[in-house]
């Protein structure tokens, strides 16, 4: 197996020059760098990743803080993970996933020098104490989600206000006049959880401007949670004919509750959600949804964090607020002309 000394002899340079080319710690002229790289290829030299990490004082590991995975391994959550892992791998980084029930303690651990190079934070609150901790430690991080104040912070998020607006517009155009929004209760997050807060505000503000009435419902982020809420709605509020799920985990239960009440979706009850293409297409019937680009958000989050690690703290922050498209499938239709059966 070739060594760095073999590379140095083949390239006609010193051992330290080979080390500098591998570590990037010192500028090396173009021709010399090319000779070293050619020698590496000719000798089939494979740098020792652990040794390089120790020499550069970098682990080439990032931590994905994703507490929801402790209680939900659903398709869309795994899409976030897939996007993060693929991008990290392309850039030569490993990913450690934390699902700790105490995300603040886990953030403290991750911020200790040597454990990881940076942190990708998910399930972001409007004023997230994990962000304050990472800023106080001057530790590199990026957010999948965003706070109320994001000055100087790299983040990517879905534009929830726009997504809820698309849902309300669609239901209003179909003639629905009373609608509901189901928000998932996230065990690891507070009432200031960003997606829920922004969706709630957009829904409340959007009703009046579209001539609608409606109600908010908070329930566990499970099929059972969706079932219980829709069962209650069909029993007590038959005039509510359009429902929006802020989480696709609720949808199977919502559909089941509609069937149990003798309602047809979409003839008697329209149901739509914020969901990725994969999740929406897998539903039965296929789900009308505003696309939630989970893979893309995981990819962009990893790219931003790695760019921060490679370019240093002086680089300008990157911020992405993504807008999903509305895709019509099989779960929404015109408002029923007559009240649904009791």
From TrEMBL:
One of its GO terms (molecular function) is DNA-binding transcription factor activity. It comes from the Bacteria. The keyword DNA-binding applies. PROSITE patterns: HTH_LACI_1 (PS00356), HTH_LACI_2 (PS50932). Residues 312-342 are annotated as: Disordered. The keyword Membrane does not apply. CDD domains: HTH_LacI (cd01392). Residues 324-335 have a biased composition (Low complexity). InterPro entries: HTH_LacI (IPR000843), LacI/GalR-like_sensor (IPR046335), Lambda_DNA-bd_dom_sf (IPR010982), Peripla_BP_I (IPR028082). SUPFAM superfamilies: lambda repressor-like DNA-binding domains (SSF47413), Periplasmic binding protein-like I (SSF53822). It comes from uncultured Thermomicrobiales bacterium. Residues 2-56 form the HTH lacI-type domain. This is Transcriptional regulator, LacI family. Keywords: DNA-binding, Transcription, Transcription regulation.
């Amino acid at each position: 197996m070739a060594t760095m000394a073999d590379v140095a002899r083949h390239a006609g340079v010193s051992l330290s020059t080979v080390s500098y080319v591998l570590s990037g710690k010192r500028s090396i002229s173009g021709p010399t760098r090319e000779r070293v790289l050619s020698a590496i290829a000719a000798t089939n030299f494979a740098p020792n990743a652990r040794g390089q990490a120790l020499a550069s004082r970098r682990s080439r590991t990032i931590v994905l803080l994703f507490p929801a995975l402790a209680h939900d391994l659903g398709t869309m959550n795994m899409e976030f993970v897939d996007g993060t892992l693929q991008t990290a791998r392309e850039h030569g980084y490993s990913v450690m996933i934390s699902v700790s029930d105490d995300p603040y303690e886990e953030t403290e651990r991750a911020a200790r020098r040597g454990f990881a190079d940076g942190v990708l934070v998910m399930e972001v609150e409007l004023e997230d104490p994990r962000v304050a901790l990472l800023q106080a430690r001057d530790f590199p991080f990026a957010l999948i989600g965003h706070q109320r104040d994001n000055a100087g912070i790299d983040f990517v998020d879905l534009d929830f206000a726009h997504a809820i607006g698309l849902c309300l517009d669609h239901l209003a155009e179909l003639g629905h006049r009373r609608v509901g929004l189901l928000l998932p209760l996230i065990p690891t997050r507070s009432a200031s959880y960003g997606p829920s807060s922004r969706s709630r505000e957009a829904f409340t503000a959007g009703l009046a401007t579209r001539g609608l009435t409606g109600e908010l419902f908070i329930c566990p982020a499970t099929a059972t949670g969706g079932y219980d809420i829709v069962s209650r709605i069909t029993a007590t509020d038959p005039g509510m004919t359009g429902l929006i799920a802020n989480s696709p985990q609720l949808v199977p239960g919502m559909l089941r509750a509609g069937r149990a009440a003798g309602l047809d979706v979409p003839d008697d009850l329209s149901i739509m959600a914020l969901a990725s293409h994969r999740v929406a297409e897998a539903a039965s019937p296929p789900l009308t949804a505003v696309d939630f680009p989970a893979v893309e958000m995981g990819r962009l989050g990893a790219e931003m964090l790695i760019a921060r690690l490679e370019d240093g703290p002086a680089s300008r922050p990157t911020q992405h607020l993504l807008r999903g498209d509305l895709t019509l499938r099989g779960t929404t239709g015109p408002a029923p002309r007559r009240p649904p059966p009791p």
